[in-house]
Amino acid sequence: MNSVAGINIVRFILLLLVQVLICNHIDFLGYINPYIYIIFIFLFPIREERLALLLFSFMLGMLIDLFSDSGGVHAAAAVSLAYIRPILLKSSFGMLYEHQSIKFSTTDIGSLITYISLGTVIHHSILFSLEIFNISSILLVLEKTLFSSIFTIILSVLIIILFSRNRK
């Protein structure tokens, strides 16, 4: 097993445990609940097979659903995020993605925040739309998406910066 696979396995397990044991128990004001497990999807290596990302995202989402008793909404949102990830990478990093030379530890912080923000808002809007699944509760979906996205973006950027090796 190479070091990239080992790092991804450890990241998968750690993010799953932190999400299930800590973050699922945070429910501030009924709207703010961080979902940091999506960091795994954001940081998955670009040169790896896209099908592997979709399968790992599905497994991660299903495990979160099993522990949260949420009926598949996390799996659907995680797979959706993994599916649109190339579009997010191209819109956030441009030519770096075209040449597949993105290293998240050395990229511009603005591009990283744009990438994480776009992905988080898309993930959360899918997640809460499927969770509530009622058009008359669209304001509740938007409130939960906004507040949880802000908290998740802040935590995700902090975690990525703190645990990246070569950050200046």
UniProtKB/TrEMBL annotation:
Keyword terms, alphabetized: Cell membrane, Cell shape, Membrane, Transmembrane, Transmembrane helix
Cellular compartment(s) = Cell membrane
- Top-rank lineage group of the source organism: Bacteria
Where's it mainly located?
A: membrane
Residues passing through the membrane, by range: 5-22, 28-44, 51-68, 74-97, 109-133, 145-163
**Keyword Secreted belongs to the record:** no
- List GO terms (cellular component aspect): plasma membrane
What membrane topology does the UniProt entry give?
Multi-pass membrane protein
Q: What does the entry give for GO biological process?
A: regulation of cell shape
NCBIfam families in UniProt: shape_MreD
| The family this protein is said to belong to | Belongs to the MreD family.
Q: What is this protein called?
A: Rod shape-determining protein MreD
Provenance organism: Winogradskyella psychrotolerans RS-3
Organism placement in taxonomy? Bacteria, Pseudomonadati, Bacteroidota, Flavobacteriia, Flavobacteriales
